[in-house]
């Protein structure tokens, strides 16, 4: 399984970005996927998850501002981010849960999001 994120960049506070995560390889059965982020000096944070096409979790820090979606025809996961804040600055990663281990075993390389004030 390969996951490749894109769509990061520099945006002003209050702006929007949409991240994409293209999946390839043996993706059959990858029903649960999510987006994480890691800011400098902070631990990795789970932001949102989606299972069987429905969002199942939103962290309080992004609830109401971020939306996860998945296009199975394109094997692509998305993260729509609105009302961005400087504290959203981080490296963003998509991840997929292995159906056998139950763990997020598959990760992308990350895409940087920087929000200026």
What share of the residues lie within helices? Answer: under 10%
Structural shape: globular
Largest beta-sheet details: 7 strands, mixed
Question: Could you tell me the strand content as a percent range?
Answer: over 45%
Radius of gyration: 13 Å
Rounded to the nearest angstrom, the distance between the terminal CA atoms is: 37 Å
Tally of DSSP helical segments: 0
Question: Uncertain runs with pLDDT below 50, 5 residues or more?
Answer: none
Return the string of H and E elements: EEEEEEEEEEE
Helix/strand/pairing class, anyone? mainly beta
Number of strands: 11
The residue-averaged pLDDT reads 95
Brief descriptors of the model:
117 residues, globular, 56% strand, mainly beta
């Amino acid at each position: 399984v390969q996951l490749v994120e894109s769509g990061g960049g520099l945006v002003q506070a209050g702006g929007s970005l949409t991240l994409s995560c293209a999946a390839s390889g043996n993706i059959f059965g990858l029903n649960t996927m999510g987006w994480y982020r890691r800011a400098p000096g902070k631990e990795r944070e789970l932001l949102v998850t989606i299972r069987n096409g429905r969002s199942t979790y939103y962290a309080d820090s992004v609830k109401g501002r971020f939306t996860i979606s998945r296009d199975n025809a394109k094997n692509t996961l998305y993260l729509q981010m609105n009302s961005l804040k400087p504290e959203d600055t981080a490296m963003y990663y998509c991840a997929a849960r292995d159906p056998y281990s139950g763990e997020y075993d598959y990760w992308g390389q990350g895409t940087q999001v920087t929000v200026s004030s």
